[in-house]
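Subject: design request, 238 residues
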């Protein structure tokens, strides 16, 4: 009986020790690396030519709006736990690359530009379950800064604007953006150090795209990109 009780106590002790090893605790640092996809939920104002709607010049171009395609890149998150349940996280990635299109109604959808962007996002996260749970759902709120670069005008748009007498664009610029970000995700502890992760963000990204032409002419559109960002990753806890 004594031997049986001792074995039971040891087994219970091991189980408790193993469970607590999965805990997130104050001071932990968690790195996650995986595939991140940006899926724009864009909403665009009507394209403007020197301040006037493009459809005033080309009625067949209605609704004359801009669009942005999706892209997948390498995503990284870094979380520092300031308590057992609260962490601060930074989302980063290799540069996302997007095709910007112009929907010109009956004229058709034409490729307007190629752009790259980086969307670093800083969030405060709350982990809901007890510290001994292998499964750790969390939610976060934070701020995003998106910077656009390597913008290039597409030949398809130049072909259309040449028929309007504007000629070929001398350049295109997308304004950088600040906005709020909301996040939900979950970690599952494979070992006391290794985790698998899935997360999704809703990010507020608003920009103005400006195509410049000779003589000071411009085509502009305000674009709310507002993407859903999905990430599936593996992680390590230090």
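Subject: RE: design request

Done. Sequence follows.
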């Amino acid at each position: 009986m004594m031997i049986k009780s001792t074995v039971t106590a040891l087994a219970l002790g091991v189980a408790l020790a193993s469970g607590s090893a999965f805990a997130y605790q104050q001071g932990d640092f968690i790195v996650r690396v995986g595939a991140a996809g940006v899926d724009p939920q864009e909403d665009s104002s009507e394209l403007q030519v020197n301040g006037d709607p493009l459809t005033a010049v080309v009625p067949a171009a209605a609704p004359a709006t801009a669009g942005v395609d999706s892209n997948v890149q390498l995503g990284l998150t870094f979380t520092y736990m300031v308590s057992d349940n609260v962490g601060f996280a930074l989302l980063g990635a290799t540069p996302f690359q997007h095709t910007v299109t112009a929907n010109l109604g009956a004229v058709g959808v034409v490729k307007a530009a190629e752009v790259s962007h980086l969307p670093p996002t800083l969030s405060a996260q709350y982990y809901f379950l007890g510290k001994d749970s292998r499964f750790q759902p969390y939610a976060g709120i934070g701020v995003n800064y998106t910077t656009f670069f390597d913008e290039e005008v597409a030949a398809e748009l130049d072909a259309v604007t040449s028929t309007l007498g504007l000629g070929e664009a001398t350049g295109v610029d997308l304004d950088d953006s600040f906005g709020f970000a909301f996040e939900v995700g979950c970690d599952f502890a494979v070992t006391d150090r290794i985790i698998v992760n899935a997360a999704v963000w809703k990010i507020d990204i608003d920009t103005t795209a400006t195509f410049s032409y000779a003589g000071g002419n411009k085509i502009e559109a305000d674009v709310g990109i507002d993407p859903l960002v999905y990430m599936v990753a593996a992680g390590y806890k230090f």
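The longest strand covers residues 135-153.
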